[in-house]
Design goal:
By secondary structure, the chain is α/β, with parallel strands linked by helices. It is built from 12 helices and 11 strands.
Length: 310
């Protein structure tokens, strides 16, 4: 998969406390529309399979339709939009996006009910709008991938979030590790689960989903944290993403993330998963240290106990 990816706005209509962009802190938009157009034109003949728009919240971009029409003129075969899904509650708006080449919505869903979702996003009523948006996207024949960032507030209902996705007919479920940058840097201590908490809540859900044959991926996790499901890592070497973010161009997004945002510590030495693993987020290691990763490495060395034993 070869994808062109553009950060189209810093602004958002939600206020997620763990936002990697720091949208809740943004008072104005640093993104210039002409830079988006120039980036589209410069890469038009590079053979990209898709164009990915993200933010902030792309659906509140005043010139979104114009941007999509430009992408169509320059031959981009399909568009993906990363969104909280709230504006998709308007079926007419969804149809207009489809007419302009949108074939996939990557929709953020961080709770199985309004209590958790609306608290995490600080948006009363947002959960109901997101669910309606997912239904409208599916009714319009547009694929939906849900992205859930696992936090201490939602980890206990992760299974219910995924079951809700299945009920809604979501095509692909992606579960993300909290990246403690932007607003997420300030949320790390309160919202980022420990390695043990992540494994306790995540692995049973993966057992259930994989056993039922659902499409599921994992993003941003050190592989020792998600073993034995490391094969579900979305950063599997089969994708190439060129991204423009606030005017800077990253020619290979996954390589940038591995080289600049993650690191390895002493427990990583001799780990059987080291060659495939991107490492641990710098800020997480700085604040919480490496002891819990030593324990995770030890888990890899110990034989698994069959679930059916008394």
């Amino acid at each position: 998969m070869k994808q062109l990816s553009m950060h189209v706005t810093d602004l958002c209509n939600e206020k997620c406390g763990f936002c990697v962009v720091g949208s809740p802190l943004a008072k104005s938009d640093s993104v210039q529309y002409n830079e988006l157009i120039n980036f589209l034109i410069a890469n038009a003949d590079e053979g990209f399979d898709s164009l990915n728009l993200h933010g902030g919240e792309p659906t509140i971009l005043p010139r979104l339709m114009e941007l999509l029409e430009t992408a169509s003129v320059f031959g981009y075969p399909e568009v993906q939009i990363q969104t909280n899904g709230r504006r998709l509650k308007d079926r007419g708006f969804v149809d207009k996006l489809k007419e302009r080449g949108v074939r996939l919505f990557v929709i953020s869903l961080h709770g199985a009910d309004s209590h958790v979702q609306d608290c995490l996003t600080q948006t009363p009523g947002g959960f109901a709008e997101t669910i309606e948006g997912i239904r409208n996207a599916k009714a319009a024949g547009i694929q939906v991938r849900v992205n859930t960032v696992i936090t201490r507030m939602n980890m206990g209902q992760l299974g219910n979030i995924c079951r809700l996705c299945v009920e809604l007919g979501v095509d692909h479920i992606n579960i993300s590790n909290l990246h403690p940058v932007g607003s997420g840097y300030f949320a790390l201590d309160m919202q980022a689960p420990t390695v043990r908490e992540t494994r306790t809540h995540l692995l049973p859900v993966l057992d259930e989903l994989v056993g039922q044959g659902h499409k599921i991926t994992l993003e941003g996790f050190p592989l020792c944290v998600v073993a034995p499901y490391q094969r579900l890592a979305i950063e599997d070497g089969t994708r190439f993403i060129r991204m423009m973010y606030q005017g800077a161009v990253y020619d290979n997004y996954d390589e940038f993330m591995d080289d600049q945002t993650r690191e390895y510590g002493a427990p990583c030495d001799g780990c059987a998963l080291r060659s495939e693993c991107g490492g641990v987020y710098l800020e997480y290691a700085e604040r919480r240290g490496w002891d819990e990763f030593a324990a995770a490495k030890q888990d890899l060395l110990e034989p698994a106990v069959p679930n059916n034993l008394p």
